[in-house]
Design a protein that fits this description.
The protein has one domain: 4-Layer Sandwich (Purple Acid Phosphatase, chain A, domain 2), CATH 3.60.21. It is of the alpha/beta class and 276 residues long. The strands form three sheets. Strands 4-5-6-7-9-8 form a six-stranded mixed beta sheet, covered by helices on one side. The longest helix is centred in the N-terminal third of the chain and has 14 residues. It has eight helices and 13 strands. Helix content is 24%, strand content 22%. Strand 5, helix 5 and strand 6 form a beta-alpha-beta unit. The radius of gyration is 17 Å and the shape is globular. The protein binds fe (ii) ion (2 copies). One fe (ii) ion binds next to loops.
């Protein structure tokens, strides 16, 4: 038996600032046409859900409108981000409560034949509220293979990367998360946030980065680590523990570049500055 899953990421939707809504309408139809068994939204459903009920409610409703069973986890634009990163929207109880009220739990476990999916919020791991759910999910998985569903990727390159920046799970929290596997590792990590497509096996983990349906972050403002494009990802989870992923391009999707749209999130920091 195979479970077919559509992964949509980083739609960045808003009812009042609808820059990426046209792209999302095309993605909605494309996912409907696939008739997946499940839809996974890997964060940044909203343009500014970290400060706006309206944006988050709109983003959630637009994903629900697709009309298939779905699960989601928050992105930094939905709940803010780890305070240590120094951004304008530090994650806190109020922001997490907004997500929980409008979108659902921040961490969850979902079983399909041969696999256990564990969803988590990579922006609030330091608050400690998710460890119990994640730890139990790992501990009771039995023979199932584990796929982590998260907004930020585990690492930009290697699991022992030490850089602290906006893009990956922070090194200390990554070490704690992977330590919960007690010497084993998840088979698969599915993430968003980078707005690039990449699918590779590194350090014993298959790591799939879903692109955004809305925009890329232009050269000079973000390194190219995979492919800068827009689209979504079709996953096939087989009951024997194998898995396939393939990029789905959509005809008519516009390749927006946030570098040229400072009115949305302000001017982007250059790569060298962002790394500081
Ligand atoms: Fe995003
Ligand atoms: Fe993000």
């Amino acid at each position: 038996m195979t479970v077919r899953i559509a992964q949509i990421s980083d739609a960045h939707l808003s009812p009042t600032r609808p820059y990426f809504n046209e792209n999302f309408a095309l993605a909605q139809q494309s996912v409907r046409d696939m008739k997946p068994d499940l839809l996974l939204a890997t964060g940044d459903l909203s343009l500014d859900g970290a400060d706006s009920d309206e944006d988050l409610a709109h983003g959630v409703a637009a994903h629900a409108e697709i009309g298939v069973e779905w699960l989601s986890i928050p992105g930094n634009h939905d709940v803010g981000d780890e305070a240590v990163l120094g951004g304008k929207q530090p994650v806190n109880a109020e922001r997490i409560a907004r997500w929980n009220r409008l979108a659902g739990p921040s961490a969850w476990v979902h079983d399909i034949p041969g696999w256990r999916l564990i969803g988590l919020d990579t922006q609030s791991l330091s608050l400690g509220t998710q460890w119990e759910t994640i730890e139990r999910g790992i501990r009771d998985a039995g023979a199932r293979r584990i796929a982590m569903i998260q907004h930020k990727p585990m690492a930009e390159q290697r699991l022992d990367d030490t850089a602290i920046n906006y893009w990956p799970v922070l090194p200390e929290l990554r070490a704690h998360l992977l330590g919960l596997f007690r010497g084993a590792l998840p088979a698969l990590v599915i993430s968003g946030h980078i707005h690039q497509w990449r699918d590779r096996q590194v350090d014993g983990i298959r790591q799939v980065w879903g692109p955004s349906t809305g925009f890329v972050v232009g050269d000079g403002f973000q390194e190219t680590m995979g492919n800068k494009l827009v689209g979504w990802v079709e996953h096939a989870f087989h009951a024997d523990g194998t898995h396939d992923a393939r990029l789905r391009a959509i005809e008519g999707l516009r390749l927006h570049d946030i570098k040229t749209m400072p009115e949305i999130y302000g001017a982007q920091k250059k790569v060298a500055e962002a790394a500081q």
